[in-house]
């Protein structure tokens, strides 16, 4: 690829789509005019009639138009895909930032239940449930991991290994220290578990 075309492509990445299309059309017109000048200088050869030349020019223009259209469609598809990824990533960051707050709510609710004040427990449960429902409506799902499940290094994060309290827990999950969460199909926080040996 020549340096001129490379510079033009770098400039095109910084321009809006409309400007890129106009530039591409201008380039195509310049190429056609350059080809016509070359053809005019080669008119010595009587191989082609005027009609054949026009048909050939028309075919070249159609080909250039189709290529330009295909490039534009690819550009649209790529940018829309990038935009979707950006929205997912932004949502993921917000959700990951809210997870420690959800953990604190769970711990606080556990401690408040020990106090025996039913009104206080009921009030905190309402806020806790509303918070969880809001996160769930945005796509957050808790991962279902419990004692006795098989340990899978792809979806679990082992923080320590202890002697198994029962033989059936050897190589399995003994305790879940921190709950894991998924956003859609992507795991945004792996569950932290203790495994038995």
UniProtKB/TrEMBL annotation:
Keyword DNA damage attached: no
UniProt key word Phosphoprotein: no
Localisation: Cytoplasm
Highest taxon above the source species: Bacteria
Biological processes annotated in GO: protein folding
Residues covered by region (Disordered): 1-56
Alphabetical UniProt keywords: Chaperone, Cytoplasm, Stress response
GO molecular function per UniProt: adenyl-nucleotide exchange factor activity; protein homodimerization activity; protein-folding chaperone binding; unfolded protein binding
Principal subcellular localization: cytoplasm
GO cellular component: a single term: cytoplasm
Compositionally biased spans, kind Basic and acidic residues: 1-21
Bias (Acidic residues): 22-50
Gene3D superfamilies, sorted: 3.90.20.20, Head domain of nucleotide exchange factor GrpE
PANTHER family (alphabetical): GRPE PROTEIN, GRPE PROTEIN HOMOLOG, MITOCHONDRIAL
SUBUNIT field: Homodimer.
Task of the protein: Participates actively in the response to hyperosmotic and heat shock by preventing the aggregation of stress-denatured proteins, in association with DnaK and GrpE. It is the nucleotide exchange factor for DnaK and may function as a thermosensor. Unfolded proteins bind initially to DnaJ; upon interaction with the DnaJ-bound protein, DnaK hydrolyzes its bound ATP, resulting in the formation of a stable complex. GrpE releases ADP from DnaK; ATP binding to DnaK triggers the release of the substrate protein, thus completing the reaction cycle.
Family the UniProt entry places it in: Belongs to the GrpE family.
Protein name as catalogued: Protein GrpE
Organism: Salegentibacter salinarum
């Amino acid at each position: 690829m020549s340096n001129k075309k490379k510079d033009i492509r770098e400039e095109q990445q910084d321009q809006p789509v409309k400007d890129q299309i106009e530039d591409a059309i201008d380039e195509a017109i310049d190429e056609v005019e350059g080809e016509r000048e070359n053809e005019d200088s080669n008119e010595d050869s009587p191989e082609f009639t005027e009609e054949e030349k026009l048909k050939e020019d028309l075919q070249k223009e159609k080909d250039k138009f189709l290529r330009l259209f295909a490039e534009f469609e690819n550009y649209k598809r790529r940018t829309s895909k990038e935009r979707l990824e950006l929205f997912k990533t932004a949502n993921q960051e917000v959700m990951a930032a809210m997870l420690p707050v959800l953990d604190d709510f769970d711990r606080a609710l556990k401690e408040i239940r020990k106090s025996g004040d039913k009104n206080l427990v009921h009030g905190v449960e309402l806020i806790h449930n509303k918070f969880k429902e809001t996160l769930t409506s945005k796509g957050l799902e808790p991962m279902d991991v419990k004692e006795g499940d098989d340990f899978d290094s792809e979806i679990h994060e082992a923080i320590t290994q202890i002697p198994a309290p029962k033989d059936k827990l050897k190589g399995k999950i003994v305790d879940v220290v921190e709950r894991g969460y998924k956003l859609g199909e992507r795991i945004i926080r792996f569950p932290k578990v203790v495994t038995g040996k």
